Amino acid sequence: MSAQEPPSIINPNVYLNYLSANEAAIYEAGRDINFITLGALIWDILSSLPDERKLIQAGRGSTVLFAYFLARPSALAMVILSILEQTGPVSNCRLIAIISATFQIISTAAASYLFLRRVHAVYFGNKNVQYFFSLLWITGIGTSCLLLYDAIHSYREIADTKHCVRQQDWAALHVAFAIPVVFDNLIYFAIMHKILSTHQTGQKRGWRTFFSHPKGLPHFSRAVFQGGQQYYLITNSINWTRLTSSHPVPSYQVILSAATVALTSVMACRVYRNLLIEALDKVRADNRELTGPVFANGPMVNASLSQTVETTPPKVKSCADGEGERTAPKEV
Fold first, then answer.
1. 305, pLDDT greater than 50
2. Does the global pTM surpass 0.90?
């Protein structure tokens, strides 16, 4: 009797055996990154619950508040689905990939909307700037829909193992990654330029000023400035890493997608939340009357609150949470 031919797959029940060594290593690394991202995102959501309770108690609904509460849960759903693709069992890889891409689009749009409203507040009255950034935001959402095309055509099941893998690279996907980077950079420099030009007229300014802590800024403007720095530096690092990463294995192109979306939503919500909580705490510390803050128009203050120690121009003062008030505070 002739010897039997050895099977091509030694253990067909192990899905990694159907991948090359390089593909399997990247597949496992991506899964580990997604698990770490899931833990960090859940921790951030739970740790911020006390502050979010303050936001709910102190205000009423608005589009900005809705975007705030939409960004991280959407990112959480995307991360969970990304893990499910790699851990299984998944009966329809394409459907899971489409739903995951949809949550990614929603989370990215909601997080960037928080800063869109902020630049609208800073450039209140300048319709050209507002229209430009609104158009750029809509363009970013449109290009993000390329993720849906990628989900439909690039994902497949690994043999019959109920695990999913991205089977082909797609150069156009970099466009979907690039527009949010452009949007974040332009938003950051536009807001910083406005703050510095308003409060440091006549003082020497350079590129280093955008990455330092300039002196002489009022409290709110300094908080806006530093919050923007934190968001820009942290999210830009991972966004550029994802954008410039190149590898022959298709899965490598999206290995940081879940982590990027989660970190972007966390930082955007953190900047928004900290600034608004700081405003609410200052009101309570001064024992002043708070008349139902309106999240769509910054912290709502009554006549007694409009007397502030800081000499702050109204357009910069009003960008505490991303949208401006039409009336200027009285200065003492």
1. no
2. no
